[in-house]
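quick q for whoever's on today - can somebody do inverse folding on this one?? i tried earlier but teh output was garbage lol. tokens:
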């Protein structure tokens, strides 16, 4: 997997180029949801997007880069949203920050649960690992703001932030697979808040 390029070859600079770029990613999303990762091909994406295969290859060298770009965009958007929310709320109570964090995480994964199911169940682990490493340290620093008023001296703030991120992310992702209705209804949201309140308050 390390020998495969996961990043786009270039970023569009003109409006027409952006339209092509986004059409390719949208087509990738639809195919992943409807048919799965294994059946995804660059030719199939180009056909669905209504662009030539040459146009697709101007931006993406392979199907892995298509999926990595979708996943990276989601991860960046989620991190940026939560970074902004928690930094604005850094003087709030621990309970408030827990609730804001969980709400933001659940919302980020509830908007398109079928795509997240594919990410969770079908995307090769090595590909996901490479994607999720980017920006992780800074994200953990932000999550650590939640723990600033807690008293767990045997656990460092960074390690506690890691535990919070992994627990929350894993439960939400598995909830998409096993308990989709509970995720969309808010039940898993409430359960996560209760667990984190018990852990940190």
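ok took a stab at it. sequence:
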């Amino acid at each position: 997997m390390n020998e495969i390029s996961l990043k786009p070859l270039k970023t569009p600079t003109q409006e027409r180029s952006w339209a092509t770029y986004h059409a390719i990613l949208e087509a990738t999303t639809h195919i992943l949801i409807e048919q799965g990762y294994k059946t995804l091909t660059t030719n199939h994406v180009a056909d669905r997007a209504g662009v030539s295969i040459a146009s697709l290859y101007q931006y993406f060298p392979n199907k892995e880069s298509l999926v990595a770009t979708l996943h990276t965009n989601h991860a960046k958007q989620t991190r940026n949203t939560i970074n902004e929310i928690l930094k604005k709320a850094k003087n709030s109570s621990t309970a408030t920050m827990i609730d804001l964090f969980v709400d933001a995480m659940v919302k980020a994964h509830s908007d398109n649960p079928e795509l997240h199911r594919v990410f969770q169940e079908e995307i090769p682990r090595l590909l996901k690992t490479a994607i999720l490493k980017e920006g992780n340290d800074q994200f953990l620093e932000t999550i650590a703001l939640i723990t600033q008023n807690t008293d767990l001296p045997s656990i460092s703030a960074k390690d506690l932030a890691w535990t919070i991120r992994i627990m929350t992310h894993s439960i939400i992702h598995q909830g998409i697979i096993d308990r989709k209705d509970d995720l969309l209804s808010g039940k898993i949201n409430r359960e996560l808040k209760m667990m984190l309140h018990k852990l940190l308050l």
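fwiw The chain has a mean pLDDT of 90. also The radius of gyration is 19 Å. so keep that in mind when u check it
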